[in-house]
Structure formats: structure tokens, C-alpha cells
Amino acid sequence: xxxxxxxxxxxxxxxxxxxxxxxxxxxxxxxxxxxxxxxxxxxxxxxxxxxxxxxxxxxxxxxxxxxxxxxxxxxxxxxxxxxxxxxxxxxxxxxxxxxxxxxxxxxxxxxxxxxxxxxxxxxxxxxxxxxxxxxxxxxxxxxxxxxxxxxxxxxxxxxxxxxxxxxxxxxxxxxxxxxxxxxxxxxxxxxxxxxxxxxxxxxxxxxxxxxxxxxxxxxxxxxxxxxxxxxxxxxxxxxxxxxxxxxxxxxxxxxxxxxxxxxxxxxxxxxxxxxxxxxxxxxxxxxxxxxxxxxxxxxxxxxxxxxxxxxxxxxxxxxxxxxxxxxxxxxxxxxxxxxxxxxxxxxxxxxxxxxxxxxxxxxxxxxxxxxxxxxxxxxxxxxxxxxxxxxxxxxxxxxxxxxxxxxxxxxxxxxxxxxxxxxxx
Length: 425
Hints:
Blueprint: H1 16-29, H2 33-48, H3 54-65, H4 71-114, H5 118-146, H6 150-165, H7 170-183, H8 207-229, H9 234-248, H10 253-267, H11 273-284, H12 293-304, H13 311-341, H14 348-377, H15 388-403, H16 408-423
Helix pairs in contact: 1-4, 2-4, 3-4, 4-12, 4-13, 5-11, 5-14, 5-15, 5-16, 6-7, 6-14, 7-14, 8-13, 9-13, 10-14, 11-12, 12-13, 15-16
């Protein structure tokens, strides 16, 4: 069975040109975070265009949820790979991210250069309370799906206490949660639906080519940076750190953000807690994966640590380094691992381990909600010194998102206008 013949449904009829222009369009309209992006792709690809079946879409989604990193970007890469092989996966995955790269670079520069302008401050004063509401909403939604047993609640509570009070590194929390889940797995059988088309035959023969290409794509830029600026330069440090983050951060954008903020703010001092909150607010206003907030963190790290080079050039280079090292592993996971990890979907012990990890992620997101909430709503260490505008805006945004299901983009835009008017009144 050849690569193109391995797909027996209507996806084999999709031309590369048609898919190319769809992925290009998707990159400009994929607002709403992972849940919104996945819903958008399902509506387009399964319901309207009928490029792939419901079973195939869910099959791909379940696989991507097993991986560290941005699941929505990995899903679009997976579907592009299903439709047109490796070149289709590259086009889909790159275009899903590319528009937000340029938009966020512009917004990051405006923030860093003109952040103290009243109009910019007003917009951010409106955006930031929405960020708190978004994180709380994500906490409730993920918690409802992930906490199915008393053990899961215990893992979530332990994860929160570990990271909030004792600052335990996130990768260690993930490892311990996986071990607990593995050791407490039950004998209950797992119901898994079989996909009609075989994925195992698809491009499994190119394993070594994929592995070598991925290694070279990582090693060559890193070697250039080390030779140019040195092992301990901010550029090389960011390259190593965000590569590590891409491989250990399970649980989506909020989980990776909790891990990165803890390290970037507390351990490395690359930026402040307030700047991290501002970055998430800016990332929410742009298309693309929410994990693009890491590009903002990279930008501010380069801006704050510019040594021996132009401040703007340093910031842009650090931003691009962050984005490159964040998303490169996602392509690696899809092109190399899909045919093999697919077999693990029905493995009882693997499923139990991943359930433990997901439960721990709930505790980590609770930590993120508290950290951001304190930074936005409390103006000082005094509990009575409350920013009532931010508090009211956070509650209103949460009600709009959770109760009335208003699209997050409209909530953010409305909050920005209100914040601008409030500041300039």
C-alpha cells in the first residue's frame, strides 16, 4: 500500500492546491485557543468540506492529546500529513502559526517600546482581567474532563501544593503523576475505536530520514548561535530552555505557560510577572496557538537582556528562537512518532499514566489562575488594596465566556475598549 493509497476515504480526493489555500486561510482566522481551533477545524474539515471522516478526525485528535506541546497545531499538522504526506503536514503546521508570528512581533515591539503610553496601558488594563477569566474557565473545563476518580483529585491537589508553595519543577510533577497513574491502573478494559485506514504503513519507511532531518534542523542553528555569541549567551540559553520546555510540557498552553513563567520569572529573571500576564493578554488577541505567548516571553527576554547588539534586533532574534524551538519538536513528534504511538491508544497502563498527568495539569492551572489573579486584581501585598475595575472586569468576562458562551475574541476586544475608555476618562 503506497502513501497516497493508505487513505481510503474522501481525503484522497483533496488536491494539494486546495489544501494549501485552506491552511493559509486557517492561519488568519484560528482564534479562540485550542478548544476553539479544534472546533473550527472539525466544522470545516469534517462537516462542511468532508475531507476526512469523524472517526479519522477523532483518531488524530486522540493521538495529539498524548503529546507534549500545542495539541491544535499538532492536530493540523497530523491532518495535513494524512492528506498529502510530509509536505502537507509541513504546510499545514507552518501556516497555522506563521500569521501569528508576525502579528505578535509587531504587538510585542509596540508593548516594549511604547508600553507606558496611556492608550496602550488602557488596552492592557482591559485585556488582563479577561486573561484571568480565561484561565479560570480553562481550569473548570479541564478539571471537569480530567478529574474522574478520587485519586485524580488527590493528584491535582498535590500538584498545586507542590508548585505553588514549594516551587517544585513542572517536569518533576509530571513524572511523579505519571508514575502514580501507572501504579494505580485498573484492569478495566479500554474501549478504542479502530480507524478504517491503516496509518502504520504511512511513511514508516522514512524514520531515519525524519530523525536525521530533525536533528540537523535543531543542531545547525544552535551551533551557529554558540559560535557567534557563546554557550552562555541569552540566545543559546533560550534555545536550550525552550527546547526542553517543548519536550516536557504536557497539558497544553496553560500548563506550559505555568512552567515557563515559573522559570523565566523566578529562576532566570528574564521578565517580570506583570509582563508575563501582559503577554498572555496580547497572545489572546492574535490568531494562532495560545502557546504563541512564549514568543512574547522570548521577545521580552531579548529586549531586557540585550548585550552587544541592538535592543530591537536582540528581542526579535530571541522571539524567533523561542518560536522555532517551541514548534520544531511538534513536527518531529508527528512525522516520526505517529505510526508507532498510534498502537498505544488501547494500552491500559499508558492510558492510566496519562490520566495522572492530566490530573496534575489541573493543579498547575489552578496555580496559574492564582498567580495571574493576584497580579491583576491586587495592587499590592495588602489584601484590602484591590483593583476593583480589574475585579469587576474579570467576573464579567468569566460570566460572558462560561455562562453565555460568547466568543473569546469579542470579549477581549470589548474589554480592551472598556479599559481604554476607563483609563482615558
